[in-house]
Specification:
- This protein has twelve helices and eight strands.
Length: 297
């Protein structure tokens, strides 16, 4: 089974202010996610703060994740970087560390063209034999993948999945139908944007690339299973319990909220990497109430 199916949980990466991975705390996070029985664990995604970590720290994070997942759950490693050769090096590092798949976002200071993005993906895809997922994250990268580019990349043997943002018109069924007509039958199409998880899975999405599952995997897995089995009423009931948390994610950014959730759960994630500041303490009661609602599912 491809690592890009079902619930993919993306944890934080606890690290010191100097960017050194806190192996103990990170390993504990990975172990509890793996124990929940998720489909895969995505390290060094946006929630993992990959852009703020050195190459050495990123390889160490993959090593720790693979060790604590115990090969029972596939590990996907984010390899996005500002230079193509750095992304290639990160892909090779991840393969050496035992990762089961790669996730690549086209990072750049200057706006990229489609040809530049295609060339980068081809270079990374050719660097290892690991399956690679396209990370379409225009909010952060300022690059939106066209249907044409996704179809072109899907012709590359090891590029087997895309992680899509929620469409602005929320026409998930229409988008999925359109994309499936452009890519191979076994090409996985999944979504990020946790507040659209129920809708995307009920519409037939292959994967939920989940922020919240990095800290609340059991609850996220219940929602995933209900939606993927077509249990509409149960999926809607579970999604309703998540709504206060989704509101917090949209208001303050899921990255900041996740650090506070980790602290509430006693996982001691530390603070987000500067210049990102922690969520103001005044928001803690609201986050605690939202977490309690989800834990009661």
């Amino acid at each position: 089974m491809s690592p890009f199916h079902g619930l993919s949980a993306f944890p934080l990466t606890p690290a010191s202010s100097d960017g050194d991975i806190d192996v103990g705390r990170f390993g504990a996070m990975i172990s509890r996610i793996a124990a929940a029985g998720v489909g895969s664990i995505g390290v060094l995604g946006s929630t993992g703060g990959y852009a703020y970590l050195t190459r050495k720290a990123r390889m160490r994070a993959v090593e720790v994740a693979v060790h604590h997942a115990g090969h029972a759950v596939p590990v996907i490693a984010g390899v996005g970087a500002l230079r193509t050769e750095w992304a290639v090096d990160l892909a090779r590092d991840a393969a050496k560390a035992g990762a089961d798949g790669l996730l690549l976002a086209p990072m750049s200071y200057l706006p990229l063209t489609e040809e530049e993005v295609f060339a980068e993906f081809l270079a990374v895809a050719e660097a290892t034999d690991l399956p690679l997922c396209i990370y379409n994250n225009p909010t952060t990268t300022r690059f939106a993948f066209s249907d044409h580019l996704i179809a072109r990349l899907a012709e590359v043997e090891t590029i087997v999945s895309v992680k899509m943002p929620l469409p602005a018109n929320l026409d998930l069924s229409g988008e999925l139908q359109r994309l499936r007509g452009l890519v191979p039958a076994d090409f996985s199409i999944g979504y990020s944007g946790d507040w659209g998880a129920a809708d995307s899975l009920l519409a037939g999405g292959d994967a939920w690339f989940s922020v919240v599952a990095g800290l609340l995997p059991e609850s996220a897995l219940r929602l995933t299973r209900a939606a993927m089995s077509g249990s509409v009423e149960e999926a809607r009931r579970l999604d309703a319990a998540f709504q206060p948390l989704w509101t917090l994610f949209r208001t303050f950014g899921s990255f900041r909220v996740m650090y506070m959730i980790g602290d509430i759960l006693g996982l001691e994630p530390g603070n987000p990497p500067l210049p990102i500041l922690p969520l103001p303490a005044a928001q803690r009661p609201q986050v605690e109430a939202a977490v309690a609602t989800v834990l009661d599912l």
